[in-house]
Amino acid sequence: MASENPDPRSLLNTETARIGWSELERHFASGAMVTVAPDLDLVEVGARFIEDDKPAVQQWLDNDRIRRTTEDEARRWAASDAGLWCVVVAPWVLVQEPQ
User: Fold this and answer.
1) Which of 13, 31, 34, 83 is least enclosed by beta carbons within 10 angstroms?
2) How is the chain split into domains, by residue range?
3) What is the chain's Cα-based Rg?
4) How far, in Å, CA of 37 to CA of 56, rounded?
5) How do residues 58-78 score in pLDDT, each as one tens digit?
């Protein structure tokens, strides 16, 4: 019997893609974009959002490991139409620069 609540990590792994800034820019403009530090696992961060793991998310926020995407980041990415790793965890769009 199939699980009714699949592991969010498996689901997010299939929904993660590298997307150009020009396609992501509107999410930044709406205030829904969150930048994830390059050394964090983007899928794991998304899963913690889905699981409503407030302590983990708050710790990342407090340590600037995740944050609202800044104007400086947006300008830099727009200048080169940077390709960013992205996963949507509604209402948020999590992005991460490739390593």
Assistant:
1) 31
2) 22-96
3) 14
4) 14
5) 999 999 999 999 999 999 999
Structure tokens of 64?
């600037």
First-to-last alpha carbon distance for the chain, in angstroms, is: 39
pTM of the entire predicted model: 0.92
- The one-letter code for the residue type at 49 is F
Task: Say if residues 85 and 96 touch (Cβ distance below 8 Å).
Answer: yes
Task: Tell me the residue type at 85.
Answer: W
Given CA atoms 33, 36, 37, 38 in this order, what sign does their dihedral have?
Answer: negative
Dihedral-angle region of residue 24 (phi above 0 means left; psi in -120 to 50 means alpha; beta otherwise)? alpha
Residue 56: both structure tokens together:
């983990």
Q: Which two tokens stand for residue 3?
A: 């699980």
Residues 6+ positions from 21 with CB-CB distance below 8 Å: 74, 77, 78, 80, 81, 82, 83, 84
Q: What is the pLDDT of residues 9-48, one digit of tens each?
A: 999 999 999 999 999 999 999 999 999 999 999 999 999 9
